[in-house]
Amino acid sequence: MSQSWQGSGRAVAAAIGRVGVWSFALDEQPVAGERTIARTVEELGFGALWFPESLGSKEAFSRAGILLSATERIVVASGIASVWARDAFAMANGTRALWDAYPERFVLGIGISHAPSVATRGHAYERPLAHMRAYLDGMDAARYDAPGERRPPRVLAGLGDGMLHLAAERADGAHSYFVPVEHTARAREVLGPEPVLAVEQTAVLDSDPAKARETARAFAVHYLELPNYANNLRRLGWGEDDLAGLGSDRVIDAVIAWGDEEAIAGRVREHLDAGADHVCLQLLGPDSSDPRLDDLRRLAPVLLN
Question: Which DSSP letter does residue 289 get?
């Protein structure tokens, strides 16, 4: 049932642009607040707005519809929709419905999630690569066809080589999260030149090292405890002293950019130079519900020019 996805990543890269926004703050907003965030991100000129589907998030397709209906041009992307939240046919048909309603403006990012979240949903996290491959077979077997010549795009959450190879084979490309620049270089090597590579980059717009790292650590500690992210860093050469507890300064600085506008823009450029097509910036502050729109206004002229 697998389809050929060769060459389709370039169209996705063109649609989402070089720089976008990734926001967990959407999870703590009412619908009216989400609409305001989406409109502001679009007005500032960013190419895409990425959103999560965690256990506490709004359902992915419902949220995508909210964000798409509030905007006119920006691409909305799931980062990621969990394969455990719906069956493969529902995932495919929901994607095609949005693609029909908002042509060229939705990118489905899908992922295998993490063992603790999967267990909470009542499933067993086993053989993730094989599960994803079978899930994609199910999506490709769906019979709903959206009007238009181009099928809805999809990218896979990818850290390890196996999932990255699958992203190149069975999707438009990959979406990476909580990664240092060296992972971007490795991901591009594995994907090859055609698939799109969309990299999330967390950042703190604060030049005070102590304050910036305090904010960064409050966010990073959860990810350092998740095996998928910790093992990815181990594969890249990070040691147990770096990953233990709250993380070393060295590893925090590698996965979370901080500093002034030029410092954060510099990290974005490093990812682009290492092979990313698109970098989606997730801005942090002391309040996790704050979408950091003022920070985005400060950064937009530097990032987008």
Answer: T
